[in-house]
Amino acid sequence: MRCTLGVDVGTSSSKGVLVDDAGRILATAVLEHEVRRPHPGWVEMDGRIWWDEFVAITHELRAQCPDAEIAAVGVSGMGPCVLLADDDDVPVRPAILYGVDTRSGAQIDRITAELGPEAITAIGGSPLTSQAGGPKIAWIAEEEPDSYARARRLYMPASFLARRLTGAYVLDHQSASQTSPLYDVERGAWHEPWWDRIAPGIERPALRWAGDIAGWVTDAAADATGLQAGTPVIAGTIDAWTEAVSVGAHEVGDLMLMYGTTMFLIATGAHTLRTPSMWTTVGAFEGTRNLAGGLATSGALTAWLRDLTSADYPTLLAEAAASGPGARGLAMLPYFAGERTPIQDPDARGVIAGLTLAHTRGDLYRAALEATALGVRHNVETMRAAGADIRRIVAVGGGTQGQLWLQIVSDATGLTQQVPQTTIGASYGAAFLAATATTAPGTEPRIAEWNPVVATITPNSATSAVYDALFDRYLRLYTGTTDVVHELAGTQREEVFA
Length: 498
Description:
Blueprint: E1 2-9, E2 13-20, E3 25-32, E4 44-45, H1 48-64, E5 69-77, E6 83-85, E7 95-96, H2 105-115, H3 117-124, H4 133-143, H5 145-150, E8 153-155, H6 157-166, E9 170-172, H7 173-176, E10 183-184, E11 189-190, H8 192-198, E12 206-208, E13 213-216, H9 219-225, E14 232-234, E15 237-238, H10 239-246, E16 254-259, E17 263-269, E18 279-282, E19 289-295, H11 299-309, H12 313-323, E20 331-333, E21 351-353, H13 361-385, E22 392-396, H14 403-413, E23 417-420, H15 426-437, H16 447-450, E24 453-457, H17 464-497
Parallel strand pairs: 1-5, 5-15, 9-12, 16-22
Antiparallel strand pairs: 1-2, 2-3, 4-7, 6-8, 10-11, 13-14, 16-17, 17-19, 18-19, 20-21, 23-24
Helix pairs in contact: 2-4, 10-15, 11-13, 12-13, 13-14, 13-17
């Protein structure tokens, strides 16, 4: 049976899927892993895990479906990450993850001052923030010079897998556009003067689009994985963009909401939009532009509450539903790991306001769900103020399995959400891209046929007044607590580094 393999390396797990020519899922596999947080604001991972888990997942999927003829391989992964490797492609240190890792603040300030904020925005699309890859590279060069001296190549999860599978050293345009300020979003090419200045000694990877074939499985990779030598492998891209592909939310006017460990939003348009508090990138496909944003916590926050209260998710969801809109007078800021967009504040921290002895864990869990929903609203309003034309909202990710969370987001934002049949996420999108890349012209699969919409979540107008008032409090709670919270963040750093 002809099929395609899709593997995605995420923040908390790697997922794999085998999909047939009609988009039916034949087999799935998941391997969980953990990030390392050695200091406040540091989030990193041993990049060698990515290949090890790819190999293990591929063997597991082939064992589940021994008759599968894997015609192509799709890869995807969290990002933008910075994994520097030596001449032998051995990582010189753990990978520094995307915007949840906020260690490069000094480099952001220095590079911005040296290059100028207007020039950075004109070339790279966005101001430098904790999401940008360039300052993370500079941090390694400045803080760990011995490691940097051995570094020769730059990888993200998808490109690292493509390298191990095919020997090709490539990076897709979308991922490259998040290594700001090293990539020119208008020219669609590396900005060589700034690359040589910020990443000296690092070879520039060849640029490809997400669905382009990066290369073909080598004999060595075939021996390790059991894949057939010569099998084509796509370049792949960052998981959020691959998730958008998996649900068909990559057309002009679309907005994708990814419910995962973090919450991610991608609005797609035909023209470049710039705003200081969001991320301007190129799209997964040639000719598209994105305005993107992300919450630093989402599923990570609900998992924290689950672990803290020793209750399972069904129990917490039932209790949160009973709590009702407004969580019986609680307001929460979800900034437990700092915050990315639109406030771009790595020193933000979680705040719970209004607590009394009468409040329950269900109220707290409801307040957490509402906090993430209000964070989505804050991002959407910022995108629209920048000129984003949002016509269709598609939800994807593990959080879509819970009706309550979806309904709260629709109620808090006033947005209707479409939920597709398959919400397994980026691994499915990677398999689709691989199928498209290896299908004869004119017979390419259509994601609307692979993965049709099966549910629509509409806002409940009866709750609009509650959430309008709560959103106002949400905004004022942040501004009203910022000074104290920043002092506490500084104390946290001092205690760790003392």
